[in-house]
Amino acid sequence: MPVQIEKLIKNERSEKITNVFQSIYKKKPDFFVRVPGRVNLIGEHIDYCGYGVCPMALDQDIFLAVGTAGEGKKLRLHNVDRKFEDFECELDDNIEISLENGPPKWYQYFLCGIKGILETLPKDQLQNLPSICVVVSGTVPQSAGLSSSSALVSAAALAAAHSLKLQLPKEELANLCARCERYIGTQGGGMDQAIAFLAKEGCAKYIEFEPLRSTEVILPTGAVFVIAHSLTNLNKAATGDFNCRVVECRLAAQIIAHKNSLDWTKIKRLGDLQKLLGLNLDEMLALTGECLKTTPYTKQDIIQELNTTSSLVDTVSLTPNTRDIEKFKLYQRALHVFNEAKRVKQFYETCKNAAGGEDTLLTLGTLMSQSHESLRDLYECSHPQLDKLVEISKSFTLGTRLTGAGWGGCTVSLVAPENVQKFIDSIKENFFKPLGVTEGFEFIVFTTTPKSGACIYVHNE
């Protein structure tokens, strides 16, 4: 099914972006694109291992005004937030995304989506491209674990596809965006892009991969989710932390595969390994204990375990920004992945079979709390500010966990309706006030309900 096209309902934001577009490009936008951010309720750091996750789309989004011109073959970008510089480049299949020291530029995420679409075009169509002019407006907090970067990549791809009259199914767009975001250097797994395109208002989604498929998750009555920002940020593409976890999981899968007489060079993910072995998650947990040592592995340890060469490990297992890492914790990472995959299934089944009431909410909250403990202790991707938020949240929530990659960003809490305001007041007083924050709370602590996925809007004329 292609992305939905709707008539634009005018509001202050759409009027502002239209006026900015007209002042720069001297014409009205042809259409608009909206792609939401997301919060992952449970299932962290397991999508790139091949396991299902449970996110929902947010009200916060990336919103684009887009127009085409018949000449020039250029991409022109402008952001309504003037801290982001304008950008212009030739529109062709030779778009380069060269990463230097420090975090990527905002427009390089946009280029990922454009490049992904252009690579699907036949050569003859590349000769007749129009210019694409874009104004960007974003309300997803940046580097907060709410998928601002993936939303921007996905919005760019959707804008390019619609400008070039490509009608791609949502699943194909999601898969394409998951692949092309890797041009920025992040080895993600596809959850962010999938929920961006497949989200449905009123429900979360249980998303599984290869093939990409989604199932509605109707959240039980009385489940309110509150997002709180730790006021610490991590740009995944700016450090090797995220990619280190990806390769640790890959190396764990490869060593277990080798010890079970499989060709380790063909194994990339723990989920693929499980399918090949034909075992359930509990059996995989037992196998992890048998095959992996609990102490860290050096690169030389890994070479010896796999009976291979440093060169082959560099090529098959590692990424350019993980080749200099000296220690890898494989047992702990695999343990988290298999247990987190179990928690996602329990979360989904609990919602599916929910009779409502306090017991259901307690079960979901407990799973979320267990998830955070695992991310903190086994995956080591939390942060002192996140842990402090989780601790403060215990008085008024049923469960709290970090959401997104971690190392900063946001927590998501399950809260009973009668405790929502008490909880928000508590973290304002006990977390934000000691940090000197006295205003702007609507951007750093807010309730959320499941919103719809990507949409194209056209003028209502």
From TrEMBL:
GO biological process: galactose metabolic process
GO CC annotation terms, alphabetical: cytosol
Domain GHMP kinase N-terminal stretches: 127-198
Keywords: ATP-binding, Kinase, Nucleotide-binding, Transferase
Nucleotide-binding recorded as keyword: yes
GO molecular-function term, one example from the UniProt record: galactokinase activity
SUPFAM superfamilies: GHMP Kinase, C-terminal domain (SSF55060), Ribosomal protein S5 domain 2-like (SSF54211)
Domain Galactokinase N-terminal: 20-67
Pfam family, one: GalKase_gal_bdg
Keyword field contains Nucleotide-binding: yes
GHMP kinase C-terminal domain segment(s): 363-431
Family: Belongs to the GHMP kinase family. GalK subfamily.
Name the record gives this protein: N-acetylgalactosamine kinase
